[in-house]
Amino acid sequence: MNAVTVTPVYDRAATTAFVRLPYALHRDDPYWVAPLEREMRAFLDPRRNPFFDTAEARLFLARRGRRTVGRIAAVADPRFQERHDFTCGHFGLFECADDLEAAGALFDAAAAWLAGRGLTRMLGPLSFSVNDECGVLVDGFDGPPSVGIPYNPPYYADLLTGCGFGKAKDLLSWLVPMPPDGEPPAAIARVAARTLADPAVRVRPLDRDRYEDDMAAIRDIYNDAWAENYASVPLTDAEFLHMAAQLKSVVHPELVRIAEVDGEPAAFTLWVPDVNQALRAARGRLTTWGLPIGMLRISRAMGRITRVRGGTSGVRKEHRSRGLVAVLLADAQRAAFRLGYTETDLSWILEDNRGSNRHAQAMGGVHFRTHRLFEREGGGLR
To answer: What are 313-358's pLDDT values in tens digits?
Structure first.
């Protein structure tokens, strides 16, 4: 067998190999959803991804002979280090054949790059932060992932543990079947009704005509609500504007609920159609030989989406005792029912976030997937 070599990604050919490796590894897996190649190239481009305004990353490829067998990104994010751990860097975008030697060589290359920046611990996968895709799927391999949630074969966890990584934190996903009448469970409905009896509280959908203003309010709530969460980093204005622009084409205003207290935005929940159900039809490409074949496939499949993903929520600290979460969940579920969706994926939720996990269970959710963050060297995060 040829020896493993690991090299940094510096040119266009290597970038192409980095982007296309998952297609070679997983194309025969019935549950893997091919990401759009164009979007991945933009994500990796410092000129187009505002994450690189404040952080840096180095990409690496592992090869056996002429065959590419693995990839990884090493990430140094000063915002994370200032908030959590000055010694900790990240790894992300990890993809690898079932090859422990290749995986070890990739992790060692990433660790060496981070050590050159004074970072002696690695946490991941974070691609590139908790605001993006993160975690290795360790339980729930019986179906395709929802949008924004990573998927990998079962052997990935073995590669990480075989390379000296241990569990840092689990991220839980809850599947909520849509009730026949679309109504939330009685316990949630009672809390929601009691909260809405307060004349100071109002819940409304996203206003498409004031999209930028509403998204700016969501950004402010998100940064306030998530400030103390595990591994969190604040979104910069540029990052949020970039994210808002990406969401605009897929978000449905009725699935974004904003709670106001005395006329001021106090909480939100943002649900999106699970466009992965449509993206599977494109097979990773919008065009083939210059023809919009992938775009036509996505367009036809969009009408067959049955799932929404409850991707993120937040409540300002001073309003956490008002019962706003119950109001938002009840309101969003009723909206999803009106739009014809049959189930909701509430993901992901930190394993020790007791409040959010209780709300997911109270909505009738069943824990159906677990993703895991791994770490190597040192103790846990503050």
So the answer is: 999 999 999 999 999 999 999 999 999 999 999 999 999 999 999 9
Measured at the alpha carbon of residue 256, what is the angle toward residues 207 and 340, in degrees to the nearest 5? 110
The token duo for 48 is 């187009």
Inter-residue contact 95 to 21 (CB < 8 Å): yes
Nearest residue to 218 (alpha-carbon basis) of 173, 248, 177: 248
pTM of the model: 0.93
User: Which of 362, 274, 356 has its CA nearest to residue 314?
Assistant: 356
Would you state the torsion angle of the CA atoms of residues 36, 41, 42, 43, taken in this order, to the nearest 10 degrees? 90
Enter the DSSP assignment of 248. Answer: T
Distance CA 113, CA 119 (A): 9
Whole-Å CA distances, 343 to 59, 192, 365: 37, 20, 10
User: How many Cβ atoms are within 10 Å of 99's Cβ, its own excluded?
Assistant: 18
- Which sign, positive or negative, has the C-alpha torsion 112, 76, 155, 377? positive
